[in-house]
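Chain A, query sequence.
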Amino acid sequence: MKDMYDLIVCGAGPSGMCAALSAARLGLSVLLIDQNAFPGGSNTASLVGPLMTFHAGDRQIARGIAQEIVDELAVRHGTLGHIPDPIGMVSTITPVDAEELKQVYFALLAKESNITPLFHHLIVAADAQTPSVTVASKGGMKTYRARRLIDATGDGDVAALCGAAFRQGRDSDGFAQPMTLMFTVENVDMDAVRQYIRRRPDQFVLDKKCDLDKYVAVSGFFELVEQAKQAGDLTLPRDRVLFFEGVGAGTATVNMTRAILLRGTEAEDLALAEKETHRQLDECMSFFRKYLPGFENCRLRSAACRTGVRESRRIEGKYTLIADDIARNRVFDDAVGICAYPIDIHDPTGQALTWTEDAPCCYDIPYGVMVPFGTPNLLVTGRCVSATHEALASVRISVACMVMGQAAGTAAHLSIAANTPFDALDVHALQQQLLRDGAIPGQKWL
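Chain A, predicted structure.
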């Protein structure tokens, strides 16, 4: 195996995969490194789903490689496609089967001779000037060199190792959004769930136009959660049940556990989070069977192999996305993608869940949020881009990460071709290449 590549992509999650695929298809030799045994990151290892969101109202705002992945899933019957969100948080959601998604990613990698995947490897050192990364594995330590680096680790690990400035958590106290262990259950009587929702709509967050006969998503059971807490049957810091019907009949993906006051960049905290969220999972299953209509005979189908981290490092970049950009549906001259997900904050210290509902959300993602200061050969993509605590609560979502990933891989190609550092890249050329490759760089192209 060679040790020199055009591009090293660090992290094979949704953003890293799209970065690697876009760069490889434009002719770069790519080394794709991930500590997991498989690609997909949060969507496969942490069971994060459904994918959100490909639409703003009736307009599709994400295409390119992100849509290609959904199309491949559809062939395998691994998705329900883009369907209206019954909760009303976004225009559409895209339920996916995590195992089929994993297989789609492996199949895409197999088609790309320019990509060398390197799973089971942890990055322990990096240098943006060389550029190079050093990895640790069961075989020992090894250093790989490249002309450019992309940090798609989610936690900004490589940017931090390269000395890039970053922030963590909210400015007031440094606490980040809680971590969650996602899990799936089976043998759920969805008809019983529907009947209860229709009988007690006051107990749920529902979109006025939702069609429960087509799909069930729940944010609610508020009264039953409170009853269980009063009885001592539920102790986790959550005020509701949140789940989405799965691709398979009678299945649901549950987003309910919550590990608070812990950092996703500290191994000891991650270990504590795994222990606590698995305890909460057992508590949830008992609560479901005892309290929730339709869940009396449910079974645990799968638990994520990694607790999901919503927020950790946020690099300090050429531009910092702020809440006002999202509220105003901002258009940027250096746009490389669009996000249509609202600011969605899980309380870092408590049980609440809040999101902005003032107006439909649809804003440009500027290239500047991906460009760290002082590391001209390094680009950052995914949920560790430059944003405030509040703004990251929007742009961290999977589809936005996929969109940024394709832009990052394309930027690497253009940067090398023009012998130009990332911080001096011709963004107009980047936008034009994204258009040629089927992506939508910004709102002006809708």
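Residues 183-303 form one domain. Residues 267-291 form the longest helix (25 residues).
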